[in-house]
Amino acid sequence: MAEDLVLDTAIRDWVLIPLSVVMVLIGILRYFVSKLMRSFQVPDHKIVKEGQVIVRARNLRAAANFIPPKSFRSRRVYFSNEENGLLFVPKGQAQNAQAQMFSDPNMAMDMMKKNLSMIIPQTLTFAWVNFFFSGFVAAKIPFPLTQRFRSMLQNGIDLSTVDVSYVSSRSWYFLNLFGLRGLFSLILGEENATDDTQRMMQMSGFGFDPSKSLSAEKDGLDIVQHEWALPKFEHRAEAVLKKLVS
Amino acid sequence: MVSKTEETQLNRLENQVDNGGGGAWEYLCLVRKLKVRRSEKVLKYGLSILNDPKKRSALGPEEWTLYEQVAIAAMDCQCLDVTKDCIKVLQKKFPESKRVGRLNGMLLEAKGSWAEAEKAYSSLLEDNSLDQVIHKRRVAMAKAQGNISEAIELLNKYLEIFMADHDAWRELAEIYVSLQMYKQAAFCYEELILSQPTVPLYHLAYADVLYTLGGLENLQIAKKYYASTIDLTGGKNTRALFGICLCTSAIAQVSKGRNKEDKESPELQSLAATALEKDYKQRAADKLSLLTSALRSLKI
Fold it and tell me: What does pTM read for this prediction?
């Protein structure tokens, strides 16, 4: 069934390239708009402190073997103590974090703004693509695919005998959506608001972030077996000096 | 901490600029990046760039960073009118800026009007209570006024929130040592070792503090840390070598009669002594006799 369809070069000139150009331009526009609309978010005391606590606990875990056992143990108790240890988050509080985040008006506004700036251009562009560029074969994917992908990739094309490698422009849109991230980080610098996929991933792991990472650190700390590395150093110093003196 | 390559690069640029070759701008950028304190040179070369309108326009937007750098250097050298000019220019350009507000606070500090500077800093902190630099400036102010206990209190409060800031831990450790509060200093040095275990400086300082505290256990731990310093510096650190000799003889004195120490590293002291003698022979041959007599008295 694999007949080679000859695709008109006009398709390339008038569909693929303009679509990519338009997406790049929309991305740049979104970046500047988000820069203008960005409100300065006052960092919360607790969040900063928690971040720092995590860094300190991680350092403790990493370099535990460099300090004497007594100091390590006292620090471990300080961190994971049942009543007022830094890493200990009682169960009730963990739930509150997410609820608090949604009820705080500032943060809700911020989230809405970010979502809006992401959803609206995407929806508009998708509708535009569907309206103008549907009903014909836009490109051929270089590798063969199974029939399952037909509904996804060949949406406007109502012929069921066309090889699944021939896709509509909708799939070209999606390809661009995910693929232009690299291009944007090149031309716009590291911090660009067009990083949709990253933001989508961030949104799902939102509210539980602080308390979960705290308890993860606490568990990690509880596991650590302290093995004081310093006695070894004495022998190594001896060896170094022997070499130096001889 | 400045690495060796960076240090050589800095010295090279400094020599180049001193002897009339170009490269003043790269030198200033490097100084800013490494955060070293070369205020006189920064002032001299920064002013030469700023006063020349052609060079100034060649900088573009970096001009304002240079103004800030020169303002701070001028404050360090007590050229307060230069500072005032720089701050005026910056304020005209960025009227509502927090950075300029901070420079103003520093100028008040440099003039010695502590109360006004404190007021300026508190108002800046009201806007953004998590500004690390302003907190640290308040600590520096308390220390400069001689009010060490308040400096300690402020620093402790700062560290409660920003506990991963190792510069702050280092400052706190030095303050404690100056006040002879050695146990607390030991805690701070432990924090430093935890965050940067491969920096020999912290091991050495920790060992010093433990040795000063005294007591058999502390002396043994101190000896181990001196050994780790020797290991980390390849045996070149004279202070650590001395530390080993002193520790071993102190331990021998304290545990007279209880000989459970010998199993660990019997040769360390003699090796350290030999290394010291070799070092002195190379670098300060006339003091060698002092060294040998001191070492001999230790071995009692």
Answer: 0.72
